[in-house]
Every structure is written in C-alpha cells, then in structure tokens.
C-alpha cells in the first residue's frame, strides 16, 4: 500500500488584467482610507451642550482653543479631567493634569466660577477611561443636572476619548465632540508628516484596543 504525502491540485492565479484590477482596487481603498481616516479620528460635531469636558493633559494650543469654543457656545460649566502628572510634579504646584489644565484655562480667562476640577487616580493603562469614570462618579455624587456635554480633545485622540466618555457616562448623557487640530501638520495630507503618520496609526490601534479590550463598568 502506497501512502501519498503530497498531491497535485490546480492553482488558479489572476491574469494580467486580474492583477491590474486587484492593484487598482487596493489603490482605491488606500486612497479612501487616507482621505477619510483623519476626519473620522478627529470629529468635530459639538452639541452646543450645557457643559464642556476638557482633557487636562492636552497641549497648550488645545487649551487656547477652549476659550474660542467657550465664547461660541457659552457653556454653563467646564469640567477638566486628568490623572497624576507623569513628570515634574515635585517642581509644580499642581499634582495632576486636571488641576494643571484648570489653572491654564483660568489664566486664559475662562471664569474660575464655572471650572470644575475632576482628577482621577493613578493607572498604568486605560487612563482616558479612568478619567471618564472619575467624572461619572462626580456627576453621580453631586447629582449634576447636566445631561448634554461637549468633549474637547487633541486631534486624532478625540474619537477614542468620545467613545470612552460615552461608555463611562452612560446612555442618559449625550456627548458631542470638538477636535482641536494639531498645528504641526496639515490634516488633509497627514501622510506627508511623520507626526501625522504616527498620530493616525497610533490612534487607529488604540481605538481598536479601546473598542474590543477595555472592560466597561
């Protein structure tokens, strides 16, 4: 009895025209991805809500934009979130990004009376979601009347932050988004800048991780 370990089977390969169709299809998908991914990651669709959420870790140019956003929508409160400073806390009066961001906004003429500092605890992972949970805890403990918020964050980070805050705050609260575009690269041609490429790729990966692997409470 002969045992055959290998057998011959027909293999179908594209013709020259077939390879051309495959190449053009991939090129079209790549073009659509390049043109749509940045607006998707950096949505700007504010609700004009009752209150504004600002992530305290964002760069100064984002915090400067908050003054313009606040002037347009006249929010009744500005919530600043963030965890402990990762470096420099021993040399600064502020120990967390929430307090640091709030102090910056005060210096930029946002009224002190409407700024609410909501710090979160130290964590090595899921820092944005931890900040969102801290805000939910504050809202629940104070019986906050606001049910419509806009979230301000940095460029491509905005989509992920919006997702995490929506999950943390629950369906009873509506969240709009305001992405502040990074001035260091042109978002229309993000692939021409190393910072733009890093920003898009990193946030695509982080968004998939947040969607599939963060355990929401």
Model regions low in confidence, pLDDT < 50 over at least 5 residues: none
Q: Biggest β-sheet, characterized?
A: 6 strands, mixed
The main sheet orders its strands as 1-6-5-2-3-4
Query: Looking at CATH, which topology would you report?
Result: Rossmann fold
**What is the CATH top level name?**
Alpha Beta
DSSP, total strands: 6
Give the helix proportion (percent range): 40-55%
Given the helix and strand composition, which structural class is it? alpha/beta
**DSSP strand content:** 5-15%
pLDDT averaged residue by residue = 91
Shape category: elongated
The CATH architecture category equals 3-Layer(aba) Sandwich
User: How many domains comprise the coordinates?
Assistant: 1
Q: Return Rg in Å.
A: 23 Å
List keywords for this structure.
alpha/beta, Rossmann fold, 15% strand, six-stranded mixed β-sheet, 6 strands, 217 residues
